[in-house]
Amino acid sequence: MTIVQINTTIAQMLDYTTPILFAALCGVLSESSGVVNIGLDGIMRFGAFFGLLGAFMSNTPWVGLLFGIGIGCLVGALHAFITIRWNGDQTVSGTAINVIATGLMTYLLEYVFSTTGYSPQLQNYFGAQEYRVHLPFLDKIPVIGALSNLSFMIWLGFICTILVHVLLYHTVLGLRIRTCGENPKAATTLGINVFRVRWFAVVAGAALAGIGGAALSISSFSGFSDSMPNGVGFIGLAAMIFGKWTPFGALGAALLFGTGQIAQSIIAVTGIAPKLAPGLTLILPYVLTLAVLAGFVGKSVAPAADGLPYYKEQR
Amino acid sequence: MSESNGTNKFLKAFGIDSQSRRRRDPLNVWVPLISIGLALVVGMIVIAVSGRNPFRAYALLFGDSGLIPGGSAWPREFAELLIKSAMYIATGLAIALAFKGGLFNIGAEGQFWVGAIVATFFGYWSPVAGAFGSMATALGSMAWIAQLLHGAICIILGMLAGGAWAAFAGFLYVKRGVNIVIGTIMLNWIAWFLITNWLVTGPMTPPTQTFTSGTYYVADTAKLFRIMMPTRLNTSIILVLLAAYATWFLLYKTTIGYEIRAIGHTANIGMEAPRAQGINVNRRIVQMMFFSGCLAALGGCFFILGMQYQFPNTATMGYGWTGIGVALIGQSEPIGVVLAGLFIGALRTGATSMQVANIPKTFSNIIEGLAVGFIALQVAVRYYLVKFLQRRRAHADPPAEQEAAA
């Protein structure tokens, strides 16, 4: 295996990692404040379609990225409205978003592009050579060389991980978000507006999931397909848990699961093992997550008030 | 008088006691109906905004849904409606049962497919299929006995497998504290990828792959009976109605059901009361998940033995997710689940012919999702409904207010 092959494989793995990472970050931010977001798969589907739509209409992926953020915020606001303003069941609301996304995106795909299954392909997307971040001096180094020619979205994923980490652990707002997730009652006593903090966390998280969806349609691939995101949101959910509800943990888990996603091709290139049944590599993220939750491999514990609606005047 | 006594006796034979019916909040019936109504209105707006005629679309949707008798296509549409509904009712019942026990079994999807693959396996596996095949030939005109037995064995084993898959999630919950929503989501995808990316494309595929590959076809003896001959309507709807009755009986007429509901009522506050009462909460939760998984897997058995006769490699997820909508619209009551399942089945049947009006058949997903969304918003729906009713009452008798003022 040559240096080029190693580097391409790693770059490819990072391509798979990015959408998972954004989904996991969405989960981290939202669940730190105490709101479960099962609907992040659906938000990614919204982000994937609208990201493509923006990129297609303006012929530049930057507008697509903005569209992804915008639609993410909107759907996140819907989730927040249902679960925070009206104390709706968070899992039910998330399910509703997933089901609506399934139907509505197919509808819009057919309405806007008059096609079924696949949107037209983009010429200008983040994966195209002129939109990649070129760092030619890294080119010849093994492993690190993979970073020499990456899509902007991958770098954005790393930047967002750091941003979410700084936000959660090094700012006042982050402390408030985590307080709302652990003990909203205490937060109220301290004069924190739990509802406003949760609104912020859910909408900001959903914006990240929207970017993650856009990363699928305008970075990893150059178009929207009707099967997107094909469960990536749920892998993100798994990555969030496997990463113990922390941004860097999510990054590590996303890298691991991204590797799992392309393990098949790695095995094929290196020939280190006979062809495994493809199902066995695909279930890896979920098996690992169950093992971690069950405490067989370390223990992962959710924020204490995660998933519970908050009633201000209830004891 | 004597007549109603007769009906009462008849109902009592099934365990239904009309005297001791609990008083229910009338809003429980109105919330799902209003949610569906609002969902249909929003769906109409979506169609209108995209420049199509919503009235034509809805005429097609409901005209071909099989709900309205008449026309040459009606028997076929009616049969499709019932076939589809049977699967949605099964997964809906599974989720409703878990809801009653205070758990959100999102894993009905995975349990559905586990049931399906196991039913497929025992449908074609030569030791079983061969035995029943020769039994059918030996019996001659009584061959239906072999069909009955083989079908029953496939369904029972499928249900047991689905139940075990769900009970594993319940086990992880009670023993290792794995949140049931997360646990069942993970098990969903494990089941799905193991089945579709390994079993169906590997060990269970015939060696000579054809254009329409997938697994082997099940033997004729494993197929469900058809009960309305030109159409493909089969016994699945009858079986699922029995399952609905059994679920109702389990919940309201047995000790286990009582204990499940006791756990469900206190699930948010630590389940102290049922524990103090001596209920083995952990065991009941695992049992409840097992029953729930059995019901979901029943739907998977219908999918194979009633519709596909093999596990196709084109199967798509969605039955369990739809079941969540069915259970929520049906307010987790077995009778409500049956009605909601019929409604969703009707939407799915009618949506196919909306393609004439340039509307993709996934439109029914939009309606379902919106209805579930409005149910999630039910606090708001109740709030505005009560406000609306109060305002109308105030309009109806203003004197009361004047008297109070005077």
Overview of this protein structure:
The complex is a heterodimer of chains A (315) and B (406). Chain A has 315 residues and is mainly α. Chain A has helices at 3-32, 40-58, 61-85, 90-113, 152-170, 172-182, 184-189, 194-220, 232-242, 247-270, 278-282, 284-293, and strands at 132-134, 149-151. Chain A is built from twelve helices and two strands. In chain A, strands 1-2 form a two-stranded antiparallel sheet. Chain A is globular and about 60 Å long. Chain A starts with a helix and ends in a 22-residue tail after the last helix. Chain B has a single domain (70-359), classed as ABC transporter involved in vitamin B12 uptake, BtuC (Orthogonal Bundle), CATH 1.10.3470. Chain B is built from 17 helices and no strands. At the A-B interface, α3, α4, α9, α11 and α12 of A face α8, α13, α15 and α16 of B.
